[in-house]
Design goal:
Blueprint: H1 5-18, H2 31-46, E1 54-56, E2 63-74, E3 80-90, E4 94-96, H3 98-109, E5 112-113, H4 115-130, E6 134-143, H5 144-147, E7 158-165, H6 166-169, H7 171-180
Parallel strand pairs: 2-5
Antiparallel strand pairs: 1-4, 2-3, 3-6, 6-7
Helix pairs in contact: 1-2, 2-3, 3-4
The structure holds zinc ion.
The site of zinc ion has 6 residues, from loops.
């Protein structure tokens, strides 16, 4: 997936005309270029080498990173949805740097997305890369396409989860995870 900056520039200019704006006015004349550069930046963040951060270790307990800030774009309206991701895995001989989990979230979020797919893609990617005993991903997001248009219902969160391996099959593991991210109290 390679971006075409010239196409983006042309499209943004046309879009601005389409909504009745003058793309040549002072505030807008650099906008097509800015948008093109922004998507170039997103593309750079999508490509990262997971293997570089991989380590082998003896740690076999749950690793959990919570409250990872996520920004993505809904593919239906190209408006942001944003919030927090909580990611856990139980290693089976391979652990990764914690920043790798944050980079994984960013790589899959900086593109047109739907929250359900984003959640699954993060879980499946980590499952493939780390081959762990289990992976759990929970996303809590506010969608601007629901807040500033349509139902105009700001502030509420959409929660999705993707559970693999032990998080799916073992109730105690799942409960520990939900307790640690503050979703249940035991
Ligand atoms: Zn939307």
């Amino acid at each position: 997936m390679a971006i075409d900056k010239e196409k983006i520039r042309q499209a943004v200019r046309l879009f601005l005309e389409g909504i009745g704006e003058d793309p040549n006015r002072e505030g807008l004349k650099e906008t097509p270029e800015r948008v093109a550069r922004m998507w170039e930046e997103f593309e750079e963040k999508r490509d990262f080498d997971f293997k570089l951060f991989e380590e082998f270790g003896a740690y076999n307990e749950m690793v959990l990173v919570k409250d990872i800030t996520v920004y993505s774009l809904c593919e239906h309206h190209l408006l942001p949805f944003f919030g927090k991701a909580h990611i856990a895995y139980i290693p089976d001989g391979i652990i990764c740097g914690l920043s790798k989990l944050v980079r994984t979230v960013r790589a899959f979020s900086l593109r047109p997305q739907v929250q359900e797919r984003l959640t699954n893609e993060i879980a499946d990617f980590l499952n493939e890369q780390l081959n762990p005993k289990g992976v759990a991903v929970v996303l809590e997001m506010e969608h601007l396409c629901m807040s500033m248009r349509g139902v105009m219902s700001p502030g509420h969160l959409t929660i999705t989860s993707a559970l693999r391996g032990l998080f799916l099959n073992d109730l105690r593991t799942r409960e520990e995870f939900l307790k640690l991210i503050g979703k249940i109290s035991l």
